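User: For my dataset I need records formatted as: sequence, then structure tokens, nothing else. Please produce one.
Assistant:
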Amino acid sequence: MFTKTKRRVLFYLAILIFLLLLFPVILYSLGYGIGSDFKLHKTGGVFIKTSEAGAVVIIDKKTKKTSLLANSTLIKNLLPGTYQTTVEKDGFWRWTKTLMILPEIVANRSVLLVPKNAEIKILGTTTPALEIKKPKFPGVKKFWVIPKTDDFLILGDDGGFYKNKDIFDVIGQWSTTTFKILKSKKNSFFDENFSRIIYWDEENIDSYWISDLDKIPEWERNSTTNPERGLHILSASPIRDVKFYPDWPDYLLVASGDAIYVVEMERTGGQNISPIYKGKAPKIISAEAGQLILLDNGNNYFEISLPR
């Protein structure tokens, strides 16, 4: 039989146990976690936006699916450190990357899932009727399309640059490095946000950021105080063609060997490269939102459905 004193002791003991159990919950809700060193640490998180609803995101034994409306998910309360992150869905190539989680910071990644068997439509041997942007000025040999406009950047015969017919100061607008890239590199183009130049040859793909540094993607920053503008994207051989992937600024379409690949620009933590078409020396004709037109083996044209 419990005496009054024993009942009082049990009551206070129950309160103590309750508080001990509640303490980690309170810490968790405040964004703290207990590390392997048994010390308190501020936690961080990962926000993943994907091209597909219902994709499974796995990080630190935590599993969540991307939402049906926003195709995204947030995983919170991760202790600082490196985490292998996986995004997968049946019928698509798996996306994996090692992410660094910092305290009180949410890492953001845009994940383009590439189908293993993309929808293909045979267009035949007749060249498709496509709108190809070209300057309407005679004698233009080298030019760049200015994205989302009807304007062109043109390299004149005099070695100067022009925006349509008007003189354009590339060095003053951007930098000497930009001037040298545009003038010396055989293959280059602006991304669709007019933020970077992609330039490439048969073995390498590189990028140079021309927009404001405060707009540079989080993953591209070497540090918060001095992010680098230059970026090496890929070394491969032979590279035949490169286009930006429509509406996904962190990805490229690359024709190499007997395939066309979707190439993630970020190399840190593991670069994701997935084939979207395999044939015989396919050539990219055009890449628009949701649609890739290619020429295979110099004979047949195909239309490939691109994930949005």
